[in-house]
Write a structure and sequence with these properties.
Largest sheet: 2 strands, antiparallel
Number of domains: 1
Radius of gyration: 20 Å
Bound molecules: (2R)-2,3-dihydroxypropanoic acid
Shape: globular
Length: about 425
Amino acid sequence: MQIQETLVQEARRILQANDRGGFTIPTAGLYPFQWLWDAGFTALGWMQFDEARAWAEFDLLFQGQWENGMLPHIVFHRPEPTYFPGPERWGVKRTPPTSAITQPPVVATFVRWMLEQAQNQALAQEKVRQLYPKILAYHRWFKRERDPQNTGLVTVLHPWETGADNSPAWDEALARVQVDPALPPYTRRDTTHVDPSQRPHQAEYDRFLTLLEVYKRADFDQLRLLQEGPFRVASLLIDCVLHRANHDLLWLSQRFGFGHEGEIAGWLEASRQGIEGLWDEAAGLYFNRDLLTGEPIRVGVSASFLPLYAGTASPERAGRLHETLQGWARQVRYLVPSTDPQSPRFEPQRYWRGPVWAVVNYLIALGFAEYGYPQVAERIRQDTLKLCEVTGFSEYFHPQTGQGLGGGAFSWTAAIYLAWSRLGGGEAS
Ligand code: DGY
């Protein structure tokens, strides 16, 4: 317990050191702005010791919301030279400047959890009333501009939107993107902060940047990009996070009497069917889908377990996922590797191609706990705490050696430690 108390203090210090006056940077140098899904996890971390500060995280995040409802994946609150691509490259004329793509929409779920945990209920309820219409506008944007045909699956336009930038799931879809011969020259900054063997390859970066230029030339016109975008996938991370977020938005609507239950229930029915359509019976897993070819992307990734977190899986499918994870567990020391360790594409140190991520572990463990698998949920929680205790609050971890990888003193890893270490055994959230 002594270790845990010291580490709790250390985790709090990390959030305080990364605080830039109401928003929390993921880590100094590598990620010096506010990122969307980081903000959700980080707010939950703040919630464990400073509720007013936790809610402020969302106030600042929504300063970046566009008039059409879109919530961008980065808000550039103030200039910082240590990151590329910054606001100049995105070219979005807003104050504060932002990127022009989104990220896993975790906010509604974290708002619900924070409301449920809040000691200061008056503040929490006031914040929910302020945030609810903004989140609703964001989720309406997803439906209107990313699933206008009501397929139940959102079209994702950039690997950065999925949060799992260089996942092997995107290899073919990304390789198809022709690098723009007129791509304006650029200098990567990420590899000056982190060992390049832990970051995406240059060929991927050229395509990430090409997509950015394509979208800029299209003036970020979403409906046009749905027809013409050179990269279009359905991402389990986005669809499962959005499904649960809509479920939690509906819960908030009911509880506060906002009156949008019918509209949200319609979205939920479509996305339940969409997600369940990604199941692969032979593999015992869910797969992402390439929307340009219509084909499943047959590589197991950590997001393949997230239909448990979404709550869309049947008990039978949950049982198969449990068996699949047992197979993965025989290959690695720490759960959950971001790629199936039996896949030839597994790279245990390279960003989203193998390492363990505390935030994804949090969502997967919650899913297993809710489906009646408390032992595996507790194993994932213990592995995550152990990784932090042994190697510190790294951005991600080597699933075999436990080595800390990527950025250090990382906000969302510290936040998960705070949220999880306050629990005793047997609980996952
Ligand atoms: C990066 O720059 O690595 C981010 O993941 C993009 O948001």
